[in-house]
């Protein structure tokens, strides 16, 4: 089927997007210390909404001990619902849909951010990064509690008026930590073989689907994000990811979302050098569930290239720099897109210091004095 980025598309659970463009989930580091959204943060999203079919929010932690950084959005307490509701309405402009990304940082945090609490993970293995702290291995009851927290977060997203949740199984956070042979060295039913390392993902997806099905919400979608491979040894190999995708494609999710910084990127595995990872993944899915492609999309040409191997396109950094990026693409006004960011633009774009520091790391070449 020939796809056009302007097509409207209806998901399995009935939600219709007005086009194939998503704003990618990107942390803003703007929330209050207790995970409650700030007015600037709502304005940040409002400014970027209206053109894209849907906005996926920054990762929101489902438990207090899942907080990965200061300024993170929280969805672990009912008192966060009014702020989340404000966030959903700031996004739901001009038909754009609002998806809340839900996550737990696992070992990718520290006891300072957790105010003295030791981080938790599948096993007691520190991440391979400078100053990484040793996490505490989760007990069986911690695992069941975490699954329940993801369910409760989904219920809060429904109450707050979101159109869906995205399960954040990517970027080395706790769901990925259960799938990774680096961070998961368990010998019980939650670890060991590839199949057992998948068990936690399987359980979370089933429970979230069940939560949505049991509620009376209509057209509420569920997506799942994954990273294609890890550099660590042992670590997730691209082959493991193809196994994961095969499983997830049959689960009744509304979409899968790959995490890539460059849509053309090839695997580090010598066995998968013929195509980009995006193309291998799309072929593996084989139309069983829609796929969101991503990775340094800046132009209409990039959008079309991604759509050759995906059903939707998510755009991150380009939409930080130009909040009206999607509308300009839709209006065929590509030449008007802002391509770099100066410190003088930041106030108008609602970009605060925490995000600026992150951008200095994530896109130094697109920042100017
Ligand atoms: C500032 C910033 C914050 C991010 N925060 C998240 C996040 O909260 N959740 C997530 O899944 N990915 C996050 N990402 C990754 C993006 O979703 C995306 O995969 C990445 O930026 C590549 O897309 P792009 O080239 O269009 O920016 C973040 C990226 C940036 C630049």
Automatic annotation (TrEMBL):
UniProt-listed CDD domains: OYE_like_4_FMN
Keyword Oxidoreductase annotated: yes
Keyword annotations from UniProtKB, A to Z: Flavoprotein, Oxidoreductase
InterPro entries with a match to the protein in the record: Aldolase_TIM, NADH_flavin_oxidoreductase, OxRdtase_FMN_N
Lineage, uppermost ranks: Bacteria, Bacillati, Bacillota, Bacilli, Lactobacillales
Example GO molecular function: oxidoreductase activity
Protein name, as recorded: NADH oxidase
Span of domain NADH:flavin oxidoreductase/NADH oxidase N-terminal: 11-332
One Pfam family matching this protein: Oxidored_FMN
Listed EC numbers: 1.-.-.-
């Amino acid at each position: 089927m020939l796809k056009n980025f302007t097509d409207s598309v209806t998901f399995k659970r009935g939600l219709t997007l007005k086009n194939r463009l998503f704003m990618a989930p990107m942390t803003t580091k703007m929330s209050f210390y207790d995970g409650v959204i700030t007015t600037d943060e709502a304005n940040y999203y409002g400014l970027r909404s209206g053109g894209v079919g849907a906005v996926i929010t920054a990762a929101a932690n489902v438990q207090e001990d899942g907080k990965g950084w200061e300024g993170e959005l929280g969805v672990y307490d009912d008192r966060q619902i009014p702020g989340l509701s404000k966030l959903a309405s700031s996004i739901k402009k001009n038909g754009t849909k609002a998806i809340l990304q839900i996550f737990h940082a696992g070992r990718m945090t520290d006891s300072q951010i957790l105010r003295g609490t030791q981080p938790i993970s599948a096993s007691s293995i520190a991440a391979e990064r400078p100053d990484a702290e040793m996490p505490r291995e989760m007990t069986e009851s911690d695992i069941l509690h975490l699954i329940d927290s993801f369910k409760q977060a989904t219920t809060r997203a429904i109450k707050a008026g979101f159109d869906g949740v995205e399960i954040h199984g990517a970027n080395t956070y706790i769901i990925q930590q259960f799938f990774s042979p680096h961070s998961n060295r368990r010998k019980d039913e939650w670890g060991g073989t590839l199949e057992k390392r998948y068990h936690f993902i399987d359980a979370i997806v089933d429970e979230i689907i069940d939560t949505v099905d049991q509620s009376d919400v209509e057209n509420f979608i569920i997506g799942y994000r994954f990273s294609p491979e890890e550099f660590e040894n042992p670590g997730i190999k691209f082959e493991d990811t193809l196994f994961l995708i095969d499983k997830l494609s049959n689960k009744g999710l509304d979409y899968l979302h790959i995490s890539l910084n460059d849509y053309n990127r090839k695997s580090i595995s010598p066995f998968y050098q013929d195509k980009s990872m995006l193309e291998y993944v799309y072929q593996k899915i084989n139309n069983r569930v829609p796929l969101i492609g991503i990775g340094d999309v800046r132009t209409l040409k990039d959008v079309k290239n991604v759509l050759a191997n995906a059903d939707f396109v998510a755009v991150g950094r380009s939409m930080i720099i130009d909040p009206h990026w999607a509308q300009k693409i839709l209006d065929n006004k590509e030449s008007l897109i802002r391509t770099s960011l100066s410190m003088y633009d930041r106030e108008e774009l609602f970009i605060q210091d925490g995000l600026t520091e992150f951008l200095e790391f994530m896109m130094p070449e697109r920042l100017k004095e």
